[in-house]
TrEMBL record:
GO terms for molecular function: oxidoreductase activity. It comes from Halorubrum glutamatedens. The keyword Lipid biosynthesis does not apply. The lineage of its organism: Archaea, Methanobacteriati, Methanobacteriota, Stenosarchaea group, Halobacteria. This is NAD(P)-binding domain-containing protein. Coiled coil: none annotated.
Length: 257
């Protein structure tokens, strides 16, 4: 498979490394392109890959889009003519990307993947919407699984609703906790606060632009803010109700295991 990776950042490089790894079921060659030619050249350097200009007219068996979520529809329109067999994205929002691929790449195999981890923390779970299956997309999924990842199928709407909770809401809650709190000596930390501090470190080690894209694309932050205000304003009886709601429907015995 001759693959063009559009967007030579961490996730784009992960795609290239995954498809060309030893033991991958895909016999892949990779070309990188990026709006910053130096980034594409850096990604190709040290890999058995090439860099091509963003405005080149090369064609490839498959095109992978690894660009900011807000840029996906335009990128699909621009790069669909350069894909001969398949197009897929790994950008993290699926409804708009699938719609754009249906419009601009109707004759191609199509899929949207979302690695639910940062590349330094591979392997992990990868959500997948296979909109138009075929041998090229099956090979991509097989290569991702061969890298130790768990590929699970979903729908675009289910995925994007889930992102409101597990990305936008979770990140907003963690960042708000870090912003609202004061620095304390390490000895004061409880198991809960220490765990939150570690999570906040993980969130803030990334690129702010990526997290801004997530907040733009998905709801969730407003709900977190509303819940925090409700907790802050609750009397003891109302607090107990909220606390029980947060427990969910689990067997009480499971809460201490």
């Amino acid at each position: 498979m001759d693959l063009l990776v559009v967007g030579a950042g961490e996730i784009g490089r992960w795609v290239a490394d995954t498809l060309t790894a030893e033991g991958s079921p895909v016999d892949a060659s990779v070309a990188f392109t990026d709006r910053d030619a130096d980034v594409a050249a850096d990604a190709a350097d040290g890999r058995d890959a090439t860099a091509v200009p963003a405005d080149a007219e090369t064609t490839h068996d498959a095109v992978c889009l690894s660009v900011p979520m807000s840029a996906v529809p335009d990128a699909v329109a621009a790069y669909a003519p350069r894909a001969e067999r398949a197009m897929f994205d790994v950008s993290g929002e699926m409804t708009a990307s699938i719609a754009a691929m249906r419009e601009h790449a109707p004759g191609l195999e199509r899929a949207s993947y979302h690695p639910l981890f940062a590349p330094p923390r591979v392997p992990g779970n990868v959500a997948a919407v296979v909109d138009e299956p075929g041998p090229a997309i099956r090979s991509v999924s097989a290569a991702i699984e061969a890298g130790g990842n768990e590929v699970f199928e979903t729908t675009a709407s289910e995925h994007d609703r889930a992102m409101e909770t597990i990305q936008a809401g979770a990140h907003a809650a963690v960042l708000a906790w870090r912003l609202a709190g004061e620095e304390v000596r390490e000895e004061f930390h409880t198991p809960v606060s220490a765990a939150l501090d570690d999570v906040a470190d993980t969130v803030t080690e990334g690129a702010p632009g990526v997290y801004a894209e997530i907040q733009r694309a998905f709801g969730g932050a407003d709900e977190v803010a509303e819940a925090a205000r409700e907790i802050a304003d609750a009397d003891p009886e109302r607090f107990a109700e909220l606390y029980e709601r947060a427990r969910g429907d689990r067997d009480p015995r499971e809460r201490h295991e």
